[in-house]
Design goal:
The protein has about 170 residues and is an all-alpha fold. The protein has a single domain, classed as Ribonuclease III domain (Ribonuclease iii, N-terminal Endonuclease Domain, Chain A), CATH 1.10.1520. Helix content is about 60%, strand content about 0%. It has helices at about 15-30, 35-40, 55-75, 80-90, 95-100, 115, 125-140, 145-160. Mean pLDDT is about 90; it is low at about 1-10.
Length: about 170
């Protein structure tokens, strides 16, 4: 099963609640304690007033903390400016969206009809936001160590792929 690129729109069918639950369990490596957190993380504002935005806010901070910690460990001699450049490259919205596509998030997204018709399943902004919301949900459900393991597993290729700090 290959990873779809950003230029290939999602055209698959939506999955059942049980399929979504099974996917989340496989993704995080254990059944969630509170499935509602993960459902909320996958819910767009067009579908419900209980949507992903607050979890996205939290997940963004958790992602930043874990990636910052990781880069600090990996590059003990690197100055702050270069660490910041690496960090910004790794936590960008596009990287989050690419990782969301890679984990197969699209069939699990809960969207209103108009958002779906408008292409929200392929929107880098929505995909990246939902990825961060999943991180926030996992943090609340299982704690920082589970979130750290999840982020390090999914972002490993990105962190390993940055041999040199980007130029400003």
């Amino acid at each position: 099963m290959g990873q779809r690129g950003a230029d290939q729109p999602y055209r698959g069918r939506l999955l059942s609640d049980q399929a979504r639950r099974d996917w989340i369990t496989g993704l995080i490596g254990a059944p969630p304690r509170d499935i509602a957190l993960f459902v909320q993380a996958l819910t767009h504002g067009s579908a419900s007033p209980h949507h992903y935005e607050r979890l996205e806010f939290l997940g963004d901070r958790i992602l930043g903390l874990i990636i910052g910690e990781w880069l600090y460990e990996l590059y003990p001699q690197e100055p702050e400016g270069k660490l910041s450049a690496r960090f910004n490259q790794i936590v960008s919205g596009e990287v989050c969206a690419d990782i969301a596509r890679g984990i197969g998030i699209q069939p699990h997204m809960i969207l209103g009809k108009q958002a779906r018709d408008d292409g929200a399943t392929d929107s880098a902004n929505v995909l990246g936001d939902m990825m961060e919301a999943l991180i926030g949900a996992l943090y609340l459900d299982a704690g920082v160590d589970a979130a750290r393991d999840f982020i390090r597993r999914l972002w490993k290729g990105r962190v390993d792929g940055i041999d040199q700090a980007p130029k400003h």
